[in-house]
Design brief:
The protein is α+β, with helices and mostly antiparallel strands. 41% of the residues lie in helices and 20% in strands. The protein is built from 6 helices and 6 strands, in the order αββαααβαβββα. A 6-stranded mixed beta sheet has the order 1-2-4-3-5-6. The longest helix is centred in the first third of the chain and has 16 residues, at 2-17. The protein starts with a helix and ends with a helix. The relative contact order is 0.17. It comes from Pedobacter petrophilus. Residues 1-18 form the signal peptide. InterPro entries: Thioredoxin-like_sf, Thioredoxin_domain.
């Protein structure tokens, strides 16, 4: 009986903490449907409002070749968390361009976490608590041990690949 009760409590706890991936809600701030919480890249690039800009911007973006050569030498097994809004103009521009860079680097998609926020820059169940997200998109780069190496907030200071290189150079 104790084992059955323990299993039941574990299942309940898992259901409470489990995040629904690719969840769509109606955002009151922007009065439109948005994605919220953890998202897959596949869902992001098919979300109607995001897709309209994603495809042409991804296709048109050409990362700087010299910067990419330097980046390839430095990228190992880091992890990247991208906090963005499907409603946000800066996210619609910078996320496709950032993915173009990651694809050119052959960065493992399993090492990229996408988190969508609402118009108040919040997600559910505390999944971005402690990240101090003030503007989106925010690209957070972590080393293999989970230590934050740096961020690109809202837009790059130089170029996305240039800012990424500066973060990776600080690490080495």
């Amino acid at each position: 009986m104790k084992i059955l009760l323990s299993i039941t409590l574990i299942i309940i706890a898992m259901n409470v903490t489990a995040q629904e991936i690719n969840k769509k809600i109606h955002d009151q701030v922007h009065n439109k449907d948005i994605l919220i919480n953890a998202c897959s890249r596949e869902r992001l690039v098919t979300f109607p409002e995001f897709k309209e800009m994603y495809d042409p911007l991804y296709a048109a973006y050409t990362p700087d070749a010299a910067t990419m050569i330097e980046l390839k030498k430095l990228v190992k097994k880091e992890k990247i968390k991208i906090v963005f809004g499907t409603w946000c103009g800066d996210s619609k521009v910078n996320v496709p361009n950032f993915f173009k860079i990651l694809d050119a680097l052959q960065f493992k998609e399993k090492n990229v976490e996408l988190i969508a926020v609402d118009g108040n820059k919040k997600a559910e169940n505390g999944i971005i608590d402690g990240l101090e997200i003030k503007m989106v998109p925010t690209f957070i780069i972590y080393d293999q041990k989970g230590k934050e190496l740096g961020r690109i907030i809202e837009g790059p200071k130089t170029t996305l690949e240039g800012d990424l290189l500066a973060i990776f150079k600080k690490k080495s």
